[in-house]
From TrEMBL:
It comes from Vibrio astriarenae. InterPro entries: Aminotransferase_I/II_large (IPR004839), Class-I_PLP-dep_aminotransf (IPR050859), PyrdxlP-dep_Trfase (IPR015424), PyrdxlP-dep_Trfase_major (IPR015421), PyrdxlP-dep_Trfase_small (IPR015422). PANTHER family: AMINOTRANSFERASE (PTHR42790), KYNURENINE_ALPHA-AMINOADIPATE AMINOTRANSFERASE, MITOCHONDRIAL (PTHR42790:SF19). This is Aminotransferase class I/II-fold pyridoxal phosphate-dependent enzyme. Pfam families: Aminotran_1_2 (PF00155). The lineage of its organism: Bacteria, Pseudomonadati, Pseudomonadota, Gammaproteobacteria, Vibrionales.
Length: 382
């Protein structure tokens, strides 16, 4: 049976392929965006896990929008406007998929920063969107390019990761957030704000979300994969009621609802007295690993590499001298370190910067030192 034309155009995920190769115990992986398993709050979840056996109702079919007690809790937790509503999804990736299926027709224009999150490019590719791009600065998207694109191309939506961007780690400046929101309102462009790394800030003060400045023009995707557990597969979509109603209709046909026991488990975790302490511990751990990696990169990278600090998240983006980054990644694998080359983060036809994305959250400090030494050795002999 022939597969759909939309799927024929989608490339397989290079990241998943390289992660498979990186499973070799002799390879230190800086490739995947994986949280450290030691941070999973299993002890905090135990009381709720034990109580679930006494609540058979959570094992019944549930509401498509989500588990009532969790929805009520999150409404207060996120301080949502009265005009907004919440939907629980099977990971925030499903939320992105539902948005694309509900709102994007073949040929509709969707704007993204480049480089950008591979999963988002795949989702919008599957609905045959016309992906437009705007370049990124150290403070967020290039605002001149953004306004020109809004005015001339009239995209339907702008997808962005303003807090500790994947793959570059860039965190938008306050002025950029305000200006992007202003432009979304002025040109009637929907902002799709993806915020999976927002809670992983380990330096500096938290900034308002971009959607705080344009709440009626935004849909927000949040994830608990980085601060609780990816295996829970619980994401959250928020936005005004008229924006979310079509998503609920699509989700009914997709999977009826996300796992109710997992939603109940997350609710118990979020209500636990030590949950905020748990997040603090994660931030401190990741900061210590980032500090080690960044320090080693500064000392060992050859001339011609460009390295920028980050204040949180899971990734460091290293621009390197011109080369075939796929071949470089293969050579690095042979030398015992896995990385992700930059072209996978660019849509077809976009101008690609020669760079590598490095993850620092899922390797120990000692492993990070060894990995950077191996990386620098190969770069020196390019």
């Amino acid at each position: 049976m022939e597969i759909a034309q939309s799927l024929q155009q989608i490339k397989s995920s290079y990241i998943r392929e390289i992660l498979a190769a990186a499973s070799d115990k002799n390879v230190i992986s800086l490739a995947g965006g994986l949280p450290d398993e030691k941070t999973f709050p299993l002890e905090l979840m135990k009381p709720t896990l034990e109580r679930l056996a006494d609540t058979p109702e959570v094992f019944q079919y549930g509401s498509t929008s989500g588990y009532g007690p969790l929805l009520s809790f999150l409404g207060d937790y996120f301080k949502l406007p009265g005009t907004h509503t919440i939907m629980i999804t099977t990971g925030s990736q499903q939320g992105l998929d539902l948005i694309a299926r509900a709102y994007v027709n073949p040929g509709d224009k969707v704007l993204m920063e480049v480089p950008s999150y591979l999963g988002a490019m795949q989702v919008f590719g599957l609905v045959q969107a016309n992906i437009l791009t705007v370049s990124q600065t150290d403070f967020g998207p290039n605002l001149e390019e953004l306004e020109q694109c809004f005015a001339e191309q009239k995209p339907k939506m702008f997808y962005a990761v303003p807090d500790f961007h994947n793959p570059t780690g860039v965190c938008w400046a306050l002025e950029t957030r305000q200006k992007v929101a202003e432009l979304c309102i002025q040109y009637d462009v929907a902002l799709i704000e993806d915020a999976p790394y927002r809670e992983l800030r380990f330096s500096g003060e938290a900034l308002p979300m971009v959607s705080d400045f344009c709440p009626q023009n935004a849909i927000v995707l949040r994830s608990f994969s980085k601060i609780a557990s990816p295996g829970l597969r619980i994401g959250v979509v928020t936005g005004k009621v008229s924006y979310l109603e079509p998503l609920i209709k699509i989700k009914q046909g997709a999977d009826l609802h996300s796992s109710v026991p997992m939603q109940a488990l997350l609710h118990g975790l979020l209500e636990h007295d030590n949950f905020e302490t748990h997040i603090t511990i994660i931030r401190e751990l990741y900061k210590s690993r980032y500090d080690v990696m960044f320090s080693e990169l500064e000392k060992q990278l050859p001339t011609g590499c460009v390295l920028r600090p980050v204040d949180g998240g899971m990734f460091v983006w290293v621009e390197i001298p011109e080369c075939d980054t796929f071949e470089l990644a293969k050579q690095l694998l042979v030398n015992g370190v896995a990385v992700v080359p930059s072209p996978v983060f660019y849509p077809e036809g976009a101008e690609v910067k020669t760079a590598l994305r490095l993850n620092f959250t899922n390797a120990t400090s000692e492993e990070l030192k060894v990995a950077v030494t191996r990386l620098a050795h190969v770069l020196h002999i390019l």
